């Protein structure tokens, strides 16, 4: 966890700041070509920062009691919506894990909410991309090797099985109910510009 947080996540922040600084210099010099060249680095590193921030905020110690979605007091509205959509919490977890295990290479597994229909959906994104289509993020799980390899080696299934022990369903409930601060907190402004 220390390597993941203090090295990988920090690198996204450092690289984002460098790209934004270079973009500001290019803008001051009216160098549109340079500004366009920097967009990929900005999108990748901003996505890495946002995704990881959402991920960390979605975790809680196993002893916190916030990880039991079946305990309706933790996340009653979300628990009901998951049961309505997938039939049971266990069926949801199986669908989430199946989708995550199908990711080829690096990416993220997401539980999202359609803003129009309010229905829950599972989706994935490559690399550090955010979910497409303006979907509201309820829960995201990092499926890059750096997230699981040191502890679980190449056993992504075991990583996913254990992630449920530390998911903070209270945060997911707030996101599901549409609280934008719960979804992006201090990152709300940055996320809206990507």
From TrEMBL:
**Residues the entry annotates as binding Mn(2+):** 4, 52, 142, 146
Q: What is its main location?
A: mitochondrion
Please state every residue range assigned to the domain named Manganese/iron superoxide dismutase N-terminal. Answer: 1-59
Pfam family membership, one: Sod_Fe_N
EC no.? 1.15.1.1
Is Transmembrane helix included in the keywords of this UniProt record?
no
* Location(s) in or outside the cell: Mitochondrion matrix
Residues in Manganese/iron superoxide dismutase C-terminal domain copies: 77-175
Q: Which UniProt keywords apply?
A: Manganese, Metal-binding, Mitochondrion, Oxidoreductase, Transit peptide
Cofactors, names only? Mn(2+)
Give the catalysed reaction(s), semicolon-separated. Answer: 2 superoxide + 2 H(+) = H2O2 + O2
Output the Gene Ontology cellular-component terms.
Answer: mitochondrial matrix
Query: Any idea which GO molecular function terms this record carries?
Result: manganese ion binding; superoxide dismutase activity
For this protein, the parts annotated as crossing the membrane are none
Q: Which PROSITE patterns does this chain map to?
A: SOD_MN
The subunit field of the Swiss-Prot or TrEMBL record says: Homotetramer.
Looking up PANTHER family in the UniProt record yields: SUPEROXIDE DISMUTASE, SUPEROXIDE DISMUTASE 2
Q: Which family, according to UniProt?
A: Belongs to the iron/manganese superoxide dismutase family.
**General function of this protein:** Destroys radicals which are normally produced within the cells and which are toxic to biological systems.
Could you identify this protein by its name?
Superoxide dismutase
Instruction: Please report the organism this UniProt entry assigns to the protein.
Output: Fonsecaea pedrosoi CBS 271.37
């Amino acid at each position: 966890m220390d390597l993941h947080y203090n090295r990988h996540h920090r690198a996204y922040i450092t690289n984002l700041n460098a790209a934004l600084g270079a973009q500001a210099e290019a803008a001051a010099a009216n160098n549109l070509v340079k500004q366009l060249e920097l967009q990929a680095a900005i999108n990748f590193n901003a996505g890495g920062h946002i995704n990881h921030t959402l991920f960390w905020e979605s975790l809680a110690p196993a002893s916190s009691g916030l990880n039991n979605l079946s305990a309706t007091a933790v996340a009653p509205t979300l628990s009901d919506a998951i049961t309505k959509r997938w039939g049971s919490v266990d069926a949801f977890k199986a669908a989430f894990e199946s989708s995550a295990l199908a990711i080829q290479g690096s990416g993220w597994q997401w539980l999202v909410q359609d803003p129009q229909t309010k229905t829950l959906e599972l989706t994935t994104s490559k690399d550090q991309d955010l979910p497409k289509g303006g979907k509201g993020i309820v829960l995201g799980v990092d499926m890059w090797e750096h997230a699981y390899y040191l502890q679980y080696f190449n056993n992504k299934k075991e990583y996913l099985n254990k992630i449920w022990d530390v998911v903070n369903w209270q945060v997911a409930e707030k996101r599901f109910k549409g609280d934008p601060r719960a979804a992006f907190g201090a990152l709300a402004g940055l996320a809206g510009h990507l």
